[in-house]
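Lecture 7, part 2: worked example. A protein chain together with acetyl coenzyme *A.
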Amino acid sequence: MALRSLALGCGSYLPAQVLTNEELSQRLQTSDIWIRKRTGICQRHIAADDEMTSDLGSAAARQALEQAGIDADEVDLIVCATSTPDETFPATATRIQEQIGCTRGAAFDIQAVCSGFVFALSVADNFLRLGQARTALVIGAETFSRILDWEDRGTCVLFGDGAGAVLLRAAENGGTPQDAGVISTHLYSDGRHHDALYVDGGPSSNGQVGHLRMEGKEVFRHAVVRMADAIDAALEKNDLKASDIDWMVPHQANIRIIESMAKRLDLPKERVVVTVDRHANTSAASIPLALCEAVTDGRIKRGDLILMEAMGGGFTWGSALLRW
Ligand code: ACO
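Predicted complex, written out as structure tokens:
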């Protein structure tokens, strides 16, 4: 027998305001066709002026608790992945903790940009498997609209706001890849690639919030190779084959990256959860948003094997295998 982190429920939240490619093309030298062809994105959600990352994260967390049938006061760990915190400090996770009415245990943020959810899942899974916590909320919540340069057509068309959450609880089971729960996580970073994707501001550099800067082609090139490596590591470690995967729930940055990952695994497109068309890239929120959509609409069922993979600024990248 082994301690496993079982996923008991999930939740998501998207701000009400939708910004279409058509609307963007009225403000910028871009077009619906260009954005759709290069990225697969048709629209994105944008947080209201009075909505903060913690509000998005709290809404997703509440839904995850409800779906799992767990009270907030049973939660003893909150890990929030975000690169767009409400404030420089305290952690957005502590704001969420307060908003959902949880007062026990520990709450903190982790920052791995678009890989944030996979990193947060890994951290929470380790806490649970070591017995340091029993019930964890793993949240990805972002308001990337606040760090975009809305004059830069090369970046501002790619991102959106949103949040997703998964409720994990430690339980004993056989601990094999056939048993339920988080099977493994693989995390990587390589800080030499800072200049390919970063925000040109921060408390200790220039005291500004800054704007996202990206060399799109360079990121694309690395994303395809590195996520493939992370997927291979996950399958190899668990002695699984690509054909064992029921669902790929990838980070949603670009449909071309997603399709190339699916092709490599020989996964039919019906087995790949895609939200990038409607959500755009919501960074750390993109995987839990996609996961929750497919769980809620009944595509993902209990016992299904889910592969998650992501890559983001840093670079950071990684993969996770979860049996729902
Ligand atoms: N509308 C119209 N034209 C545009 C736009 C736009 N929104 N943005 C750029 N262009 C122009 C460029 O100026 C360039 O024009 P030029 O040839 O006259 O110089 C032309 O389109 C081609 O630009 P590229 O940057 O070479 O286009 P590319 O095919 O590489 O597509 C894109 C750009 C979509 C950003 C792609 O590189 C990409 O998706 N990269 C991955 C980036 C990513 O996903 N980042 C998210 C964070 S990390 C992650 O999540 C994996």
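The chain has two domains: 2-173, 181-323. The first strand starts at residue 2 and ends at 13. Keep this in mind for problem set question 3.
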